[in-house]
Structures are given as structure tokens and as C-alpha cells.
């Protein structure tokens, strides 16, 4: 019985060797921009515009875009949105700010060649 | 002013409520030698998981077990447990497990310095924690949250290794101070079943413990030369009360970690965990010592509840920005320090001392000697209900809005480790038990309930201390509680903002 706490600790810390890493960013040369970093954001629904450009600044079409918005405070439901196809490297992702405050937006683009590009943006959202 | 009679050394015989320790299954479990481990082991494993995920997992707070577990679930369950049952989280505190190891390594013999045997360090600890919490946005950082948990383990271990009593729990731990203060509202309390037995008890095992390196037989009474009661101490015995409380003299839950070592150590099976009306301890004048530090703890905590909630709404931006305009850019920590010094220390200190002084003046009571301190201390318990109401409204909001987020986060944690027993896609839509709008009426009930409780207790204290002039003595406190309630409503009625460190 006395050994239980020790065993518990060892078990948990042994897990550190098993943790799968997040999907690696295999397309670091890709530029991802979003239309939420420059303009003031208000609570509500909108189309989050994601632009994908390759290393030569040419638009990338045919990618799959997954967007996750997390509030910085624990205990808030993340907001998710997806878009596919794209035109001139532009993807319209249906999205919604559900609460005012600070958000971390993670954009994950699965490119037509299978590579993955992930970028993170920080946004402050206020009430309308 | 009437001077309260000196309380008896032993608590007088009072009708006891139902004894939880006598309940068929739960009583036996609680009193079992390893009974505390039933709570401690799961909480230790939980704490280890939080630390692990905090260090190695996603650093987005809403995707990490450390942030969600501590800032949503722990806080929510703590206030719920205190209001409905008792100090269950000190009872199950995993920090005390390495503490037990520390005791075995301990140098023993050294007591916590006498000058520090009060609540000032705990008040300072609470102040620093709340300040760091806002300044460093610990709630938005799984890594800092994990470090905070580690710091608790280390602090508990070190202090236990150096000092004989549980100094960390009683004098240092900010969580313990919070739990002690609000457990005085709880419907349970440790007490002696029959104080007469305690009077004749030789070993006082509830405080001294029944642990002995070699077997020792104790004799409680010798009648006609024949020992009529014996019991044995030995290596299988248990330690006595870590916070040095003597059961028959306990009048409130203050400083009681509900470890139940007293019940396990008592050879006469004379310790009870009785049920009583909630807040009874707040109405018992003998339950509160006439001490500045104890009074300051509960008063400061009530104001800290307001300041802590204030940190979550938009006006804090404007206030901090205007302060930074004066102090210069990059001075957020200093600006917050000023806000917190005023809101968490100066305001409660000035308001409560001024109220005591005003009550004495209005009632024409001669403010000589210790009258000011005694009045301050006598009214201090009245700050407990409104403080608990504000904290419960705040913590309850986060719990109601985010309780279910732990499910997809834990699911994701399992997937991260290749454990696919629940499938490969967490349901991230799981989040709230109640929406913010649905929880709003509960916030109103909690704050008004706390306010009314405080008003009632203050009125009773005023009647006791000032007799026919009670109304005048009550007035300053009624005004403070009204302002506190209005401040709380003003905060809770505004849209809450979830701010974070990355954007500053």
C-alpha cells in the first residue's frame, strides 16, 4: 500500500516516453495568412478567410483547411471550421467567435501533396 | 458592551447531530487506517497526470488537463464540497502523501516559530497567488500550472521535514487557508462524543497520536488499585492531529484538515464527525478567536473574491491601461500589484477596521483596550457567507460552462498515447453543463444568499455585543455588505472575457 504513490508517479512519468508528438509541420515554406489579425474582431459568425501561398508566393488550391479556435482560458469549448478547394489560394472557413476575450487560432492546412502546414494566430475579440 | 464569558476548557455537553463516522459503510471506510488514501490516491494520480500533461502536453490551456483540471474542476468541486459536505479536499490532499515521507526523514523536535503561528503568512500567500495568477496568467498556462502543483508538493515536503507539526497546512498553504475559512460554513464538524471521557483520558491520543516505536500500555483510570481501562500504543498506531487541534476543545472547522487521524487515534472511539446546520459555526461566538489574523483572513478572502472576478471583465483593461499610462509601458505587473494591494489588502483592512470603530462610536462603546480588536474579530465571521457566495458564483460559472471539456481533452490525451479504446476522434463539442445565461440565475441566488447570510450573522453579532443599540452597531457592516453585493452584481452582470498572456 505504501508503494502505491510511488508506483503511480512512476507510471505517469513513464508515459512521457509514449507521448505521440503533434502532427509535424512538414511545409514550413508555406505562407498562411488569415483576415483576423489586422481588423478588430467582434463576437458573432463570419467567414474566416485563409490564404495559402507556396515558397514562390504562388497560391495553393486544393488543400484542406482545418481551423480551431481556443480561448486562452481553460474550460471553453473550442470552435472549429473547415474548408476545401480554394480559389486563388483563398479559402472561406465558416467560423464564429462565441465569447469576447483572447483566442488562439490554429490553422492546419493539408496540402494537395500531403504535406501539412500549421500556423497559430492570437486574436483579441470584443463584444459587438 | 457585554464581555463574553471565558469559554470552558472542554466543550460543554451539547446535543450531537448524526455522526457520519457511525454510518454503516462510509463510517468504517473513513475511519479505516488507510481510509484517507481512498481520496488521496485518486487525487495524487490526478495531480501527477496534471503535472505530466502540463509539462508535456499542448500549451493551449483549453486543451490541457493541467489547466482544465485545476482552474475549472478543482476550484468548482472545492467550493461545492465546502458548502455541501466539508473540507474534503484537505482530507484528500495529495500534497500530504510525500509529507508523510518527509515526517519519516524529519529532524523532528523543531516547532514552527512562535511568531509565525498565525494566518498572516497564509494571507500573504493568497495575495501573492492571486497576483501571480493574474499577472502571469497562470490560468492560461499549463506549464505554470504544473509548476504551481510541483511547488505545493515541494513546499509541503520541505516544511514537514523540518518542523514537527503540519506547518504547511496550518500556517502556509493558501488553498488550505481558503478551505479552512469556508469550511466554517460546512454542515459537518469534528467533535467529542462525550467530553467527560476526554477529561479522564491519559494519552490524549487525538492530538498526541497513538504511534510509539515500542508497545506502551496506558491506564486511564485505577479504581481500587485495579486498572479499569487500558490501551496500547505501538508502531501500528497513527499520528495525532497535524494541526495540533484537541478534539474536545474544537469549536469550529478552522485549521481542521478533516484527516480523521484524531478519530483513528482515539482509543475510546470518542471522536465524531457530526452533522449540523450549515453556518452554525458562524453564529457561535465561542467558535472564533478574538484575533486580528483570523479575522483578517476571512475579511480579505471575501474582498479577494470580488477582485478575482473583476480580473475577468473588460473594465480591468481600462484600469490597467490608465495605470500603465502613469507608470510607463511594460508595467503590467506593477499595475496589477497596485490594484490588488488596494482591492485585496487595503480595502478590506480599512473597511473592516473602520466598520468596527464606527460601530463602537455609534453605540457609544468605549473603544479602550482590546475593544476594537474584539469587535473586528466578532464581526469577521459575517464576511464568510458573502465571500463564499461570490466565490461560488465565480467558480461555479467556470465549472458550469466548462465541466465537460475535460472529456474530449482526456480522450485526446489517451489518443496521444496510442490508447484508442474510446475511438480516434474526441467530441470537442462537449463543454458546458449550463450556458452562461442559464447559470446567471444561480449567480444571483448565490450572491444574494451570501449577502443575506452575512447581514443575518452581523445582526446577531451586533445584538450580542451591543444589546439595545444593536441596530447602530450593525449599520456599518450592513453598508459594507450592501456595497460588496452591488460590486459583485456589477461584475457578474458584465460580459466575461477570457484573457490570456500571449496577447499582452
Structural commentary:
The complex is a heterodimer of chains A (128) and B (504). Chain A is mainly beta and 128 residues long. In chain A, 9% of the residues lie in helices and 48% in strands. Chain A contains 1 helix and 8 strands; from the N terminus they run H-E-E-E-E-E-E-E-E. Chain A has one helix at 4-14, and strands at 31-34, 41-42, 44-53, 63-71, 79-85, 90-97, 101-110, 116-126. In chain A, the strands form 2 sheets. A 5-stranded mixed β-sheet of chain A has the order 2-8-7-4-5, with no helix packed on it. Chain A has a 3-stranded antiparallel β-sheet with strand order 1-3-6, with no helix packed on it. In chain A, a hairpin with a 7-residue loop joins strand 4 and strand 5. Chain B has 504 residues and is mostly helical. Among the domains of chain B are: 189-281, no CATH class; 285-495, no CATH class. Helices cover 57% and strands 5% of the residues of chain B. Chain B has helices at 26-31, 37-56, 65-84, 88-91, 96-105, 120-135, 142-162, 167-172, 174-183, 195-200, 205-208, 261-265, 280-283, 292-310, 315-327, 332-362, 371-379, 383-402, 406-416, 436-466, 470-492; strands at 188-192, 216-223, 226-233, 271-275. In chain B, the strands form 2 sheets. Chain B has a two-stranded antiparallel sheet with strand order 1-4. In chain B, helix 14 (292-310) packs across helix 16. At the A-B interface, helix 1, strand 7 and strand 8 of A face helix 2, helix 3 and helix 18 of B.
In short:
Chain A is mainly beta. Helices cover 9% and strands 48% of the residues of chain A. Chain A is globular.
SSE layout:
The complex is a heterodimer of chains A (128) and B (504).
Chain A: H1 4-14, E1 31-34, E2 41-42, E3 44-53, E4 63-71, E5 79-85, E6 90-97, E7 101-110, E8 116-126
Parallel strand pairs in A: 2-8
Antiparallel strand pairs in A: 1-3, 3-6, 4-5, 4-7, 7-8
Chain B: H1 26-31, H2 37-56, H3 65-84, H4 88-91, H5 96-105, H6 120-135, H7 142-162, H8 167-172, H9 174-183, E1 188-192, H10 195-200, H11 205-208, E2 216-223, E3 226-233, H12 261-265, E4 271-275, H13 280-283, H14 292-310, H15 315-327, H16 332-362, H17 371-379, H18 383-402, H19 406-416, H20 436-466, H21 470-492
Antiparallel strand pairs in B: 1-4, 2-3
